[in-house]
Specification:
- The chain is of the alpha/beta class.
- It contains 23 helices and 19 strands.
- Strands 3, 6, 7, 8, 11, 12, 13, 14 and 15 form a nine-stranded mixed beta sheet that branches. It has a four-stranded antiparallel beta sheet with strand order 16-17-18-19, covered by helices on one side. A two-stranded antiparallel ribbon has the order 1-2.
- Helix 3 packs antiparallel against helix 5, helix 9 runs antiparallel to helix 10 and helix 16 runs parallel beside helix 17.
- The protein is globular.
Length: 619
Amino acid sequence: MQKARLWRRSWISFVAVLIFVKVLLFYIYSAQAIRLPLLFGTIAWLAFLMLSFRVLFGGKYFLLYCIVSCILFVDILYYQYFGFLPSVKELVHVRHIGKVRSSILYVLNPLSLLLLVDLIPVGLFLRRQLYRRKEETDSLVRRFPASALLFTAVLLLALMLPFVSEPLQQTFVFNRYGVFAYHVYDLAGVVTGTALSLKTEEIPHEGYINVVAEKGRYFGIARERNVIVIQLESFQDILINFFYNNQEVTPNLNRLANYDSIYFNDFYQQVGAGNTSDAEFVTHNSMHCLGRVSVYETHSQNSFYSLPAILQVAGFNTVAFHGNDGRFWNREEVYPTLGFDDYFSIEDFERDEIIGLGLSDLSLFRQTAAIIDQLTGPVFAFVVTLTSHNPYEIPVEYHGIELLPEHENTLFGNYLRAVNYTDRALGEFLQDLKDRGLYDSSMIVLYGDHAGLYPFNRENREIMSSILGAEYKFADAMNIPLIFHIPGSKLRDVNSTPGGQIDFFPTILNLLGIVERKGILFGRDLCNASSGFVALTHYVPEGSFIDDSRIFIMSPDGILNNSEAIDRSTGQPIPPFSCLDGYKNAIEQIEASKYFIVNDSISKLLKDITPQNRRPQGF
């Protein structure tokens, strides 16, 4: 007699409990606060999934168990690296996985493997337990009511109701209703085309037209100089003047910040899922990025009002340098659109030393200096470093920081050694520029692309809190350095106006003495801003911000009263509702940027501007 599977209620409950335990372990690791709505939402969605697999797949509950285990495995790896859950939208970035495999392997830990190792033994156990005679199964099927399909459909509608009643950021869905709700909401957004949560009504661009003061503070102080912009991989502002175990971690960067420079010490990252590529986009375009997808990957054919294009029209030779694959983040296609005359990637360099993801920073800087020396006219050189990339593992011979025993084999320890190496490479680059007679005639600009040590990683949070003597928060991590070094200027200006990467573009225009009133800029010239404001993105919920007097971090569940609001002068909490003005301002900025990018609004704005009337004043 044939055998078929018969799922007893006890074994159905067994699988449901196993799934819930795994989800609960994931919440303990990732969720900031486990509240009753989160647990109730998880149980409700789990019940729906169990019913769905009974009705639609004939009760293949072990298949559901395998699918959930694999999804949670991917979730926890992604969370350990990025601090939030993956999205179906990010499948566009899958081809980059091979490039960052060392980072993925680094975040593998026993907890993540625990989500998979039980699949084979559980499967064998259930196989032995769940076989019964065919007629027993047939009788069970007959007993299964047809109304179950209707009940399942009604349950789904009830579970989806909160999603359609109000617009929600994806992180709110996860923290309110759980991981199952998050993935369903994410998938539904992609299928229906509402994944970016864009406004449908037209947003006028007039309020974002660039206005740069002609006679503002420091206007034109770097006119007629070469401009060398260095985007430092994973550099945080905490590194400036930082000593560890009586060792100066970034001595060359410190000297740049302290002499002949304007140093912005309250400057913040505003990147999205594109990370380094988004840092490039935001700084060069003074617009927010798209968040969960990279602008470089999804909107490379757009027209942009970019810094390289303005400098190109002004007569600069605009060149980009990066020690990675030229196709990585679609740079080969995007850079010409942004206004770069040329782009040197790893394919164009001598591959004399490879560390991590590509060419070592020492080699990159050495070969870049030689190329700049051969260029004619004023040069705008954009250099993207790479060696200090997560997981920050560099050869032993380059270890320049002696770690305390407790920091060996930690991400923090690796990070200190990696940034110290990049700082030494920077020092050699500066000396090379001096030897070639390029240093005194250049303005050298440095900024971090994004944080290297985020507090969603428990080890990072604990070590950094110990180092700082206070709780290490996202506002600390997202604070990156911005330095305009102008040799011979005798400037020693430490500017504490809060700013973000969108402010880089108008600020550098002012220093170069360029007056440009076309296009869309969301940022402000920080040298002349009367007040500061930063709309934080991606790693904290949209609507979070920092201004002169407040730090506001929107709650991950989207409930205002659960948010963090701090008075910067006292360090004390303030009522979250007192930050509603800044919250609305931040949301407005981000939504307008997304709208202009998705609708290619800048191409419409600039289509009637010819090269002749685009030439900036001051050149």
